[in-house]
């Protein structure tokens, strides 16, 4: 990497540096193209670079560099640099710091992260997120940040979807009834739709779902590009969900009325009424939105299953109880004994079994198409985990089929492969997904003057320490050798 160093303290010198460095990178023809350059600027030159006349040219130069280092700058200058990028670049800015002089920068950024350490808690108190060490930033971004974005995106989209499916159905019924004002669903069933029957699937999607395991995301940072590009929440994705909700609503309404209508006669000779038809359609709707939630989620466990499928039995129990309240309680007069009529009607069971599958068939075909023909990094990672196994946080695979491509970190650092065989070298790779051993060296020492000679104040044996972060101490700490 070629370093571009701003030297001097005058505005003309700053302008000269910007023009010369821009010409070195190809001039206006290479604008916006990142090149193998690094830019270094101090506080004295940054004052002129951030001035009104030069800040646009300075930002254009900085955006062509792979890295920019601003040294000996004031807290205000840190915040000004963040604001400059935030205002002129279409990107999400993140600022991280550990001291009180970083508070302005942290608050100016879109996402502020404070490190709680020896310099106090001012930065942590003013930040959006607080971490204990800088190395935790990797997991915060690659794992928790990605999970959070995907979860929130899906919860928002699913919330729009499930409400449109139910309430737009009233529009179809209004057209059919000549806009008479008659409602299709009983009022308490409408009120309980979001409160009970579709309450738990968003919890599973927004809290329990994990698109690709944490260990896999840490091993493959390319997965972060998907969330960084915002592919889970774009305009086309939003309108695709809205269109899907309208399609499901129309299909449920159309097929339900084609199946049961208003003119069918029950076994006891009674003709089905409006509340019978509305309750049957409501039941199909609960099934459809539940199946849609099941297709949306990626991580399955017993708690996820309980949340996803809870709405169906809750609706059945509610229907059995609510249809028996009248006349003991002034509730459910319109649905009195509706459960007997529904459960004794063969067409109702035909609707419940067949219509949800026909409605959701398009979703399944689209999901299969994207999984097999338009694979992205996340889809490939999910398929790899399903085939090879999910990696535990310590690096061991929880499930294996045949040869394990994942190299156990702790076993590899001790000279053993993922299957227990000793390796010839700690850095031996087994497949594309094997991980190499990582070692660290810590150097510590202070210089002191004794008798006119400068010598180390720390003994040589204590100054240089070699440590392996994979070796755990007796109290859970890294062992220092």
Describe this structure in words.
The protein has 481 residues and is mainly alpha-helical. Helix content is 52%, strand content 11%. The chain has helices at 11-24, 43-49, 55-62, 75-88, 103-108, 122-126, 136-176, 187-197, 200-208, 214-219, 224-228, 235-259, 274-296, 302-309, 311-322, 338-343, 346-373, 377-388, 409-413, 460-463, and strands spanning 2-5, 35-42, 65-71, 94-97, 111-115, 129-131, 440-443, 447-450, 453-456, 464-472, 478-480. The strands form four sheets. Strands 1-2-3 form a three-stranded parallel sheet. Strands 4-5-6 form a three-stranded parallel sheet. The protein has a three-stranded antiparallel sheet with strand order 7-10-11. Strand 8 and strand 9 form a beta hairpin. Helix 7 runs antiparallel to helix 9, helix 7 (136-176) runs antiparallel to helix 13 (274-296) and helix 9 packs antiparallel against helix 14.
């Amino acid at each position: 990497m070629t370093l571009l160093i701003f030297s001097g303290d005058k505005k003309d010198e700053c302008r000269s540096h910007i023009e010369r460095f821009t010409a070195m990178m190809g001039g206006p023809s290479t604008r916006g193209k990142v090149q193998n350059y690094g830019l270094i600027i101090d506080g004295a030159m940054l004052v002129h670079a951030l001035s009104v006349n030069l800040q646009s040219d300075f930002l254009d130069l900085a955006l062509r560099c792979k890295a920019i280092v601003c040294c000996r700058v004031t807290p205000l200058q840190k915040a000004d640099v963040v604001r400059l990028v935030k205002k002129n670049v279409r990107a999400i800015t993140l600022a991280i710091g550990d001291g009180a002089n970083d508070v302005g920068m942290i608050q100016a950024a879109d996402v502020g992260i404070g490190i709680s350490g020896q310099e106090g808690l001012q930065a942590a108190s003013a930040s959006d997120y607080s971490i204990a060490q800088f190395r935790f930033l990797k997991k915060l971004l690659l794992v928790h940040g990605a999970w959070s974005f995907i979860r929130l995106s899906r919860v928002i989209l699913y919330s729009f979807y499930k409400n449109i499916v139910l309430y737009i159905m009233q529009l179809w019924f209004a057209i059919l009834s000549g806009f008479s004002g008659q409602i299709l669903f009983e009022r308490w069933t409408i009120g309980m739709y979001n409160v009970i029957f579709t309450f738990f699937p968003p919890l599973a999607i927004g809290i329990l779902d994990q698109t690709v395991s944490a260990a896999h995301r840490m091993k493959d940072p390319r997965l972060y590009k998907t969330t960084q590009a915002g592919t889970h929440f774009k305009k086309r994705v939003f309108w695709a969900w809205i269109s899907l909700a309208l399609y499901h609503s129309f299909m449920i309404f159309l097929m339900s009325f084609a199946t049961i209508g208003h003119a069918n006669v029950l076994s006891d000779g009674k003709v089905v009424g409006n509340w019978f038809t509305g309750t049957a359609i409501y039941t199909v709707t609960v099934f459809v939105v539940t199946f849609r939630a099941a297709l949306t989620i990626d991580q399955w466990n017993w708690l996820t299953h309980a949340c996803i499928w809870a709405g169906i039995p809750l609706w059945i129990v509610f229907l059995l109880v609510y249809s028996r309240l009248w006349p003991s309680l002034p509730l459910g007069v319109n649905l009195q004994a509706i459960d007997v009529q529904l459960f004794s009607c063969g067409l109702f069971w035909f609707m419940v079994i067949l219509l949800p599958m026909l409605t959701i068939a398009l979703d399944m075909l689209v999901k299969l198409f994207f999984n097999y023909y338009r694979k992205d990094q996340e889809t490939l990672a999910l398929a790899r985990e399903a085939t090879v196994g999910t990696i535990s946080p310590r690096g061991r695979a929880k499930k294996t089929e045949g040869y394990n491509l994942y190299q156990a970190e702790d076993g590899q650092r001790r000279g053993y492969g993922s299957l227990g065989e000793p390796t010839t070298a700690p850095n031996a790779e087994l497949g594309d997904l094997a991980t190499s051993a990582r070692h660290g060296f810590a150097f510590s020492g202070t210089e002191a003057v004794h008798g006119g000679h400068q010598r180390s104040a720390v003994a040589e044996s204590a100054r240089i320490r070699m440590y392996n972060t994979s070796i755990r101490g007796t109290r859970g700490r890294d062992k220092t050798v």
